């Protein structure tokens, strides 16, 4: 490299007294460089050329140590893996695709789903400090027995979609209407008691226990409503008002509501002597579904006119008219987990369970069950509900809410499953059908622990004990 002195043409005698590093760079004139024909000229600052730089010089080359043959092999591979990740093509000095041509994924983040391959992996050392996705074992689905744990023989149980002939009291007594009679079956002792016989000219069309479980209301084929003391088997009073059969009943504290084939809903107050205190007119056909909300503020009624109507305690006309069903609405249940949420089921031409927000009348969801919906009941223990069905499957289905995924499908009845009631602990349901049987199913868990498995058995509710 030629000296700067020869290019500056300094006068003689100044070479010894003048130092190049004492002269500011700005004093040097811009003199063009003349490259040497036999030698490459470089600038005074080193800027490497990227195309010709050897990046492998900065990598952890897997070379054996000259002092210790193989001594640093394992350490180098481990350190390289932890810093740069695993390279599918390890460095080899003579191999094609060496670090002279860097991998295109260099300096790119990559998630390794294959799991840690080193005891010093980040996922094992700092899993709690980083957002590492940890797979959790799938939840084991609850097993629901496919067969009833108990069967009661119930002769003369009518095959009529519009009647409600089975109810389970909070005192653990089951009431069943068979023909002109009402029988009580104790779930504790299995004792059967004949409550009443309405005589040959009348029949039982509806049964409903009061919430305290001491009184039972009976709707008759002639349109009357009778109140009985279930513990003493004594009739308290009888109330009229309907022109024809009373097929559905619903309690609200001291108020008993009744629905009839005459299209009307009557409110009976047990504290006053009259037959009824108010009449609700809104349906154009028989009233077959009736349920008060859990807070007693709203009443849902369903009819053979395919309507679901929502009333409150003071209304004489419905607050909401929900007309999306295309068949009779008998099945109604209120959610015990969410305010103003009610579900309704349609008959053979509809087959759907629909979910409604009664605050605004919006339909929240709908599921086509594939068969006539006869009854609905919402579990108080878990956010699930059970439906019973008629044409053409005659099955019982358990649903999760709000996903509406099926938990179980239960079969066994040979005719439409027209009747449904739930035990006071919320774990067992009883279903009744025109096949003259009542079947008990362990369906829902308890509030804290799963429902116990009980012994199966068959009892008679008519042919042995009752005539």
From TrEMBL:
Keywords: Cell cycle, Cell division, Mitosis, Repeat, WD repeat. This is (wild Malaysian banana) hypothetical protein. Pathway: Protein modification; protein ubiquitination. One of its GO terms (cellular component) is anaphase-promoting complex. The keyword Cell cycle applies. Transmembrane segments: none annotated. WD repeats lie at residues 197-229, 280-321, 410-443. SUPFAM superfamilies: WD40 repeat-like (SSF50978). It comes from the Eukaryota. PROSITE patterns: WD_REPEATS_1, WD_REPEATS_2, WD_REPEATS_REGION. Pfam families: WD40_CDC20-Fz.
